[in-house]
Structures are given as structure tokens and as C-alpha cells.
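Researcher: We plan to redesign the surface later, but first we want a full-length starting point. C-alpha cells attached.
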């Protein structure tokens, strides 16, 4: 077995609501616990020397949830970044956002844009939040931009290839994730990184995200190493 650490790991942080319910708490309390675990997983990823960590925090389908829950999920990044930004600066963490930011409520948009702007020159771990992200939306918005460029004759149709598409995706500039982990027991792709996951290894954990930890992340990486050692 090799000891190669995947450079880019993506996590579908699922199971917050069920975690809350199982404890007689609200779904939002589950999301709060999930945000605390997220911090621990960022720390663990740094310790494991993962270079890029993508975290699926809100999907383009999650708007259909009860209004109260959506409101809470839109407030969480504001609270999270207000509290954590100085520490992210100190620890050289670079924040990126993949998703349709323009559709977010103004305070949420402001908080995430500020986090990206302030950390843009940091060159430690990249923490990329997939927020208001959908894989189909990602491909669709890339198609629109490419067509616009072809119509304006800035790009020739003959030059539209995979590399060019990559350049227009929300994950522009990032290599594809080598490992995608989904917590919470479901074994679905739920519209995550459809283009980017073409060669990814998938790992499913039955633990609800708030219960996920460094040891479980390490187990996923060991499984990844076993699967890829004879490639
Ligand atoms: C994942 O947890 C986090 C978000 C989608 C924001 P869920 O909220 O989907 O929790 P479950 O799957 O209902 O338990
Ligand atoms: C996927 O979880 C999205 C996130 C983890 C943010 P969901 O709970 O929204 O997905 P479904 O509804 O089970 O497909
Ligand atoms: Mg879920």
C-alpha cells in the first residue's frame, strides 16, 4: 500500500439534520454542530497535509427546505467567517467559494466575498466551500460563458475542449478531487462536482457529519491508498 496523501479531498457534509433529531435537538442545532466539526476537519486536513479541501455546505437544491432552516444556513457563513477569519489569516488558510454567489442574500454574499478577498494571498491549505453549488448549474453556467465568448469571437469553436471547460467551471484553477467522501450514510452524488468527479474515488461513511473526526478522515484516506496502490 502506498502512503500518498490525496492532494484534493472533497467532503459532502451530510447528516446534520438527523444528528440533531437523534439528540432531540432541531435541524439547525445539527447544522451548528456541523460547523464546529468543519473546523476540526480543516485542522485535521492541515495535519494530514491535504492541500485542497472542498466542503459541500449548501446545494442548489437546498433552497427547497423549510424557510427557517434556509435562513439559518444562510446566516451560518456570516457567523462562521466573522469568528474565524483572523485565525484563518494567522494560519495561512486560503478560502475559496464554488457556487452561484450572486443569488445569496446580501449579508451572506458579503461575508463569503470578504473571506475570499482577505485570504487571497495566503498560500497554505485551500478550503473551498461549495456553497449554493450544483454540478448541473456549474456545467450550465460554463456553457453559457463559453457560448458568449464564441459569439463575441474571443474563442474559436475548434478550441472548445475539456481544458477550456475546466477554466469556466466554479472550481477554476483547482485540480479535480482525487477523493470524495460523503458522510451520513446516503450513497448519492446529490449534484456535487459532476464534471470534476470523473476519476474520483468515492468513500461513504455512515457517521453523521457532526460525528466525523480526524480518525475517520484518516480511515477514508487509508482506504483510498489501498484502492489506488495497484493503479
Ligand atoms: C447536510 O446535512 C448539510 C446541508 C445540506 C446543509 P442535512 O441537512 O442534509 O442533514 P440530513 O441529511 O437531513 O440529516
Ligand atoms: C447534499 O446533501 C448537500 C450537502 C451536503 C450540502 P443533501 O442532504 O442536500 O442531499 P440529498 O437531498 O440527500 O440528495
Ligand atoms: Mg442530507
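Model: Full-length starting sequence:
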Amino acid at each position: 500500500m502506498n502512503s500518498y496523501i490525496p492532494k484534493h479531498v472533497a467532503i459532502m457534509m451530510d447528516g446534520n439534520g438527523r444528528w440533531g433529531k437523534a439528540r432531540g435537538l432541531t435541524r439547525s442545532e445539527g447544522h451548528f454542530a456541523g460547523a464546529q466539526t468543519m473546523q476540526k476537519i480543516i485542522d485535521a486536513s492541515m495535519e494530514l497535509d491535504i492541500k485542497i479541501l472542498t466542503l459541500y455546505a449548501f446545494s442548489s437544491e437546498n433552497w427547497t427546505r423549510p424557510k427557517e432552516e434556509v435562513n439559518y444556513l444562510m446566516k451560518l457563513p456570516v457567523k462562521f467567517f466573522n469568528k474565524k477569519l483572523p485565525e484563518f489569516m494567522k494560519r495561512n488558510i486560503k478560502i475559496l467559494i464554488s457556487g452561484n454567489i450572486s443569488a445569496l442574500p446580501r449579508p451572506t454574499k458579503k461575508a463569503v466575498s470578504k473571506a475570499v478577498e482577505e485570504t487571497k494571498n495566503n498560500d497554505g491549505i485551500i478550503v473551498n466551500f461549495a456553497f449554493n453549488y450544483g454540478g448541473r448549474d456549474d456545467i450550465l453556467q460554463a456553457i453559457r460563458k463559453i457560448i458568449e465568448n464564441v459569439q463575441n469571437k474571443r474563442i474559436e469553436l475548434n478550441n472548445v475542449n475539456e481544458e477550456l471547460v475546466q477554466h469556466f467551471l466554479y472550481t477554476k484553477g483547482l485540480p479535480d478531487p482525487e477523493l470524495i467522501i460523503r458522510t451520513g450514510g446516503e450513497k448519492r452524488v446529490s449534484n456535487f462536482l459532476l464534471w470534476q468527479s470523473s476519476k474520483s474515488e468515492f468513500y461513504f461513511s455512515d457517521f453523521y457529519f457532526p460525528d466525523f473526526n480526524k480518525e475517520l478522515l484518516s480511515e477514508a484516506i487509508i482506504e483510498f491508498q489501498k484502492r489506488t496502490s495497484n493503479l
